[in-house]
Amino acid sequence: MLSYEKMSKDDLLKEISSLEERYSQYKEKNYNLNMSRGKPCKEQLDLSDEMATCLGENDYKDQSGFDCRNYGILDGVPEARALFAEVLATNAKNVIVQGNSSLNLMYDAISRAMHFGVPGSDKPWCKEDKVSFICPVPGYDRHFAVTNEFGIEMINVPMTSQGPDMDKVEDLVANDPSIKGMWCVPVYSNPDGITYSEETCRKLASMKTAAPDFRIMWDNAYCVHPIDSNDSDSVPDMLSLCEECGNANRVFEFASTSKVTWAGAGIACIAASDENISYIKSHITLQTIGPDKINQLRHVKFLKNADGVYEMMKKHAAILRPKFISVLEILKNELSMTDIANWNEPKGGYFISLFVKLGTAKTVVALCKACGVEFTPAGATFPYGKDPEDSNIRIAPSFPPLHELTPAIEILCVSTKLAAARKALGEI
Ligand code: PLP
């Protein structure tokens, strides 16, 4: 095992000079590669092209005969609600289908809670002295941006291989009534690709919370996104689990077809208990007369049912798998014989989470940038953009073609080693 810390100064200087030579060879190629975008590539978007034509000019009625070209149907067409309900293993009556973005629904859920409270609140959250949220880290930067926007204080809790560290979560929520909620990406989490264990889900559903109106933001963005369709992860239906534990109102669940059909023109849903659904509807009725139901109809016509979704996800997996394999191969070849980095080998989702030598992630990302490769800024996977250990880098393999992915990850590995060697020498 190569350890820069254990090397003599001479050997370290030799190692740095050979790494610098490799680095400058890459630099001479004047790359301009972007590895920061966790979005589907063109081939993935092409899989859903039939959606542009699958509705005929007379296909504008939903299954109840409602004319979807018109205003109305606040909670989405019944067949779209049934489709999400089947995928999420819940009841259609507990699902509201809206526009193209689940993030939008999450933002609205927090905004409503701040302005009006939620069932179980004795006042709007914004009237509390302090509101805080538990943020499993590393996590999704946009979750943190939403909570930050509303002045909600964010408390880091580390992820484990089973999900968030539940000893810490249980202790925090039991003793601090200012903790009103928690972000969770339960399947193939962003960025670690970790799926919560059943025990973690059960603890989340049953734990005692000092705040009576505590909410879990259960962002099931990657619930049908394995990279090998023969080996997929799942979690229990959190709505039933919370109900079983006497906390039916605890969870707001979110999902969308952003990474099933078209990321910019999909459909999204919020699922929740009966009481939560009536509360949400009482507010969205003032926000909109109804969502884009024609897009909902064409999604159902195209995907049909949960099996149709799984079939589509096999096609996505076939495109994504070689990219994930290629990244993991390069990381293994370049870094597994050193003690300077570790990474997750996700079975699904959109990201690979790399942990470089403590205190060097910012330097690594800067070295990559100077070599023409852009990664998500170091720190972005933590609340306030601050990774206390300056170690995590999010790799997003989906968008670039393989011939761009390979040099980008090689440059990442050389930069990781260079930064670690310079740190061992005391230069960083
Ligand atoms: N949630 C997570 C965890 C994500 O990673 C993403 C996109 O990367 C989203 C939500 C965005 O979803 P949507 O396109 O439905 O707004």
Polypeptide structure, described:
The protein has about 425 residues and is an alpha/beta fold. Helix content is about 40%, strand content about 15%. It contains 13 helices and 13 strands. The chain has helices at about 10-30, 40-45, 80-90, 100-115, 140-150, 165-175, 200-205, 240-245, 275-285, 295-305, 305-335, 360-370, 400-425, and strands at about 35, 95, 130-135, 155-160, 165, 180-185, 215-220, 250-255, 270, 340-345, 350-355, 375, 390-395. It has an eight-stranded mixed β-sheet, with helices on both faces. Helix 5 links the parallel strand 3 (about 130-135) and strand 4 (about 155-160). Helix 7 (about 200-205) crosses helix 8. The longest helix is centred in the last third of the chain and has 30 residues, at about 305-335. The radius of gyration is 23 Å and the shape is globular. The model has no long low-confidence stretch (mean pLDDT about 95). The structure holds pyridoxal-5'-phosphate. Pyridoxal-5'-phosphate binds near residues 101, 219 and 256. Pyridoxal-5'-phosphate binds next to helix 4.
The molecules bound to the chains, other than polymers, are: pyridoxal-5'-phosphate
User: Which parts are unreliable, with pLDDT below 50 for 5 consecutive residues or more?
Assistant: none
- Principal-axes geometry comes out as globular
Strand content: 5-15%
Which structural class do you get from the secondary structure elements? alpha/beta
Helical amount: 40-55%
> What's the pLDDT, averaged over the residues?
97
Main β-sheet, spatial strand arrangement:
2-9-8-7-6-3-4-5
What does the largest sheet look like? 8 strands, mixed
Q: Please tally the helical runs, counting DSSP H or I stretches of 4 or more residues.
A: 13
Task: Give the terminus-to-terminus CA distance.
Answer: 22 Å
Order of helices and strands: HEHHEHEHEEHEHEHEEHHHEEHEEH
The number of strands is 13
CA gyration radius, whole angstroms: 23 Å
